[in-house]
Amino acid sequence: MTWLTEAVAFLVTFTYCSYFEWFIHRHLMHVKRPFPFHEAFKGHTLVHHQLYHWNGKFEVRGPGRPPHITLRWYAFPIMIGLHLPFFALFQWLTHWPTFWGATLGCVVYFSGYEYTHYLMHVPRGHYVERFRWFKFIKEHHRLHHKYMLRNLNVFIPLADVCFGTLVTSEGWRSKQAKRERTLTKRRAEPERRKVPAQAEP
Ligand SMILES: [Zn+2]
Ligand SMILES: [Zn+2]
């Protein structure tokens, strides 16, 4: 049943990558760390978040390839390479054919991250941009550029749901609407109290 164990390994690592993405984004890209991780904070928090501000500059249109959107060239091979010894060890210990499925799960997730993140900032009219799911994660990421410690997933927001860091525009809007309703109610309260007082002789 090689294909079955490889397929399960693919699904497990693909799901795991949502947590890995969340962890790296939260603890390396948004926290200042010493060498050799200092570049991740600088490139992401200080440059990417400032260049592509949530309000107005989030999207870049026109020809050319805007800078500081994709990860550094070495990030992808490092992230895959870090996992390979664990996949090999797991297969060696269990004798279950899982190595290639697990590797593919990581490659697909990280490629999906790079591709969708690029399209979020640089719309190219690709077919995927029409999907409701893409529009959802694009808005999800735009809110991350506003609230840096929320919506830390870019590709699949599973870890955001599990760790309670997911915010949606609907959620923020409804919170604001709720706040406004409460304020209106409070403002109306003294008025209502005044009515019987004025009616008394
Ligand atoms: Zn971004
Ligand atoms: Zn970020």
Record keyword descriptors for this entry.
2 domains; 68% helix; mainly alpha; 201 residues; binds zinc ion; 7 helices
Describe this structure in words.
The chain is mainly alpha-helical. It folds into two domains: 2-167, no CATH class; 168-201. It is built from seven helices and no strands. The longest helix has 31 residues, at 169-199. The radius of gyration is 23 Å and the shape is globular. The termini are far apart. 18% of the residues are buried. The structure holds zinc ion (2 copies). The site of one zinc ion (ZN) has 7 residues, from helix 1 and helix 2.
Q: Could you give the topology of this structure?
A:
Layout (H helix, E strand, L loop, with lengths): L1 H28 L8 H14 L23 H20 L4 H23 L10 H15 L11 H6 L5 H31 L2
What's a concise summary of this model?
Helices cover 68% and strands 0% of the residues.
Bound molecules: zinc ion
Global outline? globular
Radius of gyration: 23 Å
Mean pLDDT score: 89
Number of strands: 0
SSE order, as H and E?
Answer: HHHHHHH
The class by helix and strand makeup works out as mainly alpha
- What is the count of DSSP helices, taking H or I runs of 4+ residues? 7
Number of domains: 2
User: What is the terminal-to-terminal distance?
Assistant: 91 Å
Estimate the helix proportion, in percent.
55-70%
| Unreliable sequence segments | 197-201
* Biggest beta sheet summary: none
Strand content: under 5%
